[in-house]
Structure to design on (379 residues):
């Protein structure tokens, strides 16, 4: 419990919201807390307790709050849900207890699998899986690695979800090539799709946040754990543990919000992810296998009239990116024009000054008059 309370991520966010310290003091406090944690605990302890705390804070607690809200005030909840009352979670205590038990079991399972993999790799490589040091990663490095992690996660999620969990056979070469090489047709997977359908898609209705981890344990690991943990292992040599914590927190919060089925999710992009997730659960045909919708748009497996590009355009118009870009271009052009005029004026002044100084004749000077460019001779 002392490790959980001393997590620097939690203390950092709580300190910014509760106190009025400046940003520099917050960063200093964050660095001191993180350094103390690194120096007093092993890397595997920090990783496991940190990931568990993130999943509890960003998934379990919000899911239970959403579930409580939906069951206590269903008349209000159905007005802010996709598909209305059909998106409300079941009210049967036995059903909810079974779903909660399965979700908690999968949470414990992914924690145990992560512990085994991290411990085994650390013993095999004789170093921690993720870089755990007192040196904090730079913001630009965090942003670059997060972009790569999200890209790899989206690729793994889409193809695993489509070809393994929904039984779509993988693409085969053209028939002429197949006949020449005598390639057999790709078998259609049956076991995994039946497990995924009987557990995750048992109810043909929009999901609720608790259903993020309601699935058969094997298909759950393939769908949720592998696309999150495997990209981090690929970048493990340069990936700081804090960056992995940020990535895990963002993905967990995204999964929780996208499965809540609320229509009031902030942000057009996040709202689009929630809408596509609901259509994946309720659609008459399979589709919307990815999270962000990009690969669904590329492969033509998107459901509904709107795709990811509609969300991007709405987000851009919401923030008036085009008008802001034009204003920035106009401001930059005006500044460049003023700079050119100023440099030209200074150049003309320097030329006129040099011409007046060079007109010496005898002991006199050539004094220029403002109206007469020839000047008057002064003995």
């Amino acid at each position: 419990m002392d490790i959980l309370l001393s997590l620097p991520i939690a203390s950092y966010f709580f300190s910014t919201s509760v106190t009025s310290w400046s940003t520099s003091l917050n960063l200093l406090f964050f660095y001191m807390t993180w350094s103390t944690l690194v120096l007093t605990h092993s890397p595997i302890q920090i990783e496991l307790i940190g990931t568990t705390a993130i999943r509890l804070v960003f998934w379990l607690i919000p899911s239970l709050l959403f579930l409580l809200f939906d069951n206590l005030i269903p008349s209000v909840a159905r007005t802010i849900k996709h598909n209305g009352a059909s998106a409300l979670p079941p009210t049967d205590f036995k059903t909810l207890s079974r779903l909660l038990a399965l979700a908690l079991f999968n949470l414990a399972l992914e924690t145990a699998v992560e512990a085994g993999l991290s411990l085994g790799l650390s013993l095999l490589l004789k170093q921690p899986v993720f870089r755990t040091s007192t040196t904090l990663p730079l913001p630009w490095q965090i942003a670059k690695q997060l972009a790569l992690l999200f890209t790899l996660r989206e690729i793994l999620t889409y193809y695993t979800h489509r070809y393994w969990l929904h039984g779509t056979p993988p693409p085969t070469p053209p028939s002429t090539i197949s006949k020449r090489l005598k390639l057999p047709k790709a078998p259609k997977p049956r076991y995994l799709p039946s497990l995924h359908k009987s557990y995750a898609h048992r109810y043909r209705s929009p999901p609720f946040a608790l259903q993020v981890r309601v699935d058969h344990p094997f298909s759950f690991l393939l769908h949720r754990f592998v696309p999150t943990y495997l990209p981090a292992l690929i970048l493990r040599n340069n990936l700081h543990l804090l960056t992995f914590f940020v990535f895990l927190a963002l993905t967990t919060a995204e999964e929780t919000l996208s499965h809540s089925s609320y229509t009031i999710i902030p942000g057009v992009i996040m709202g689009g992810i929630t809408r596509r997730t609901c259509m994946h659960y309720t659609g008459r045909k399979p589709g919307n296998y990815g999270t962000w919708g990009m690969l669904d748009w590329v492969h033509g497996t998107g459901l509904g009239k709107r795709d990811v590009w509609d969300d991007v355009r709405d987000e851009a118009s919401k923030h008036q990116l085009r008008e802001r870009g034009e204003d920035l271009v106009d401001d930059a052009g005006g500044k460049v024009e003023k700079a050119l005029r100023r440099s030209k004026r200074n150049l003309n002044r320097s030329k006129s000054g040099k011409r007046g100084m060079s007109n010496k004749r005898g002991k006199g000077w050539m004094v220029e008059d403002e109206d007469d460019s020839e000047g008057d001779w002064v003995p």
Summary: Confidence is low (pLDDT under 50) at residues 1-19, 173-179, 360-379. The two ends are 96 Å apart (CA to CA). Residues 321-357 form the longest helix (37 residues).
